[in-house]
TrEMBL record:
Positions of the MrpA C-terminal/MbhD domain: 11-77
Compartments where found: Cell membrane
Protein name: Hydrogenase subunit MbhD domain-containing protein
Domain of life: Bacteria
Pfam families for the chain: MbhD
Membrane topology summary: Multi-pass membrane protein
Organism per entry: Eiseniibacteriota bacterium
Keyword Cytoplasm belongs to the record: no
UniProt keywords, alphabetically: Cell membrane, Membrane, Transmembrane, Transmembrane helix
Segments traversing the membrane: 6-23, 30-50, 56-75
Amino acid sequence: MSGDLSAIFFLLALVAAIVALQVRDLLAAAVVLSSFSFLVALLYIVLGAVDVGFNEAVLGAGVTGVLFIVAIFNTKRRSRD
């Protein structure tokens, strides 16, 4: 049971990583990257590393995602004429 669940989380994280690399919008990429970090945190928890999973969820999905989104909203677009 645990092996099946960890395989599912691993495949979902792999799909999220590929989608984050392929998407063209920076905000969507930041959201998908945060979901990737959350899926990796769930994978750590399923594998038995609860403290590592908690830290990944807080830092990887939470703080880093918020910092990426704040950075995207504070940048200005420049168009080349």
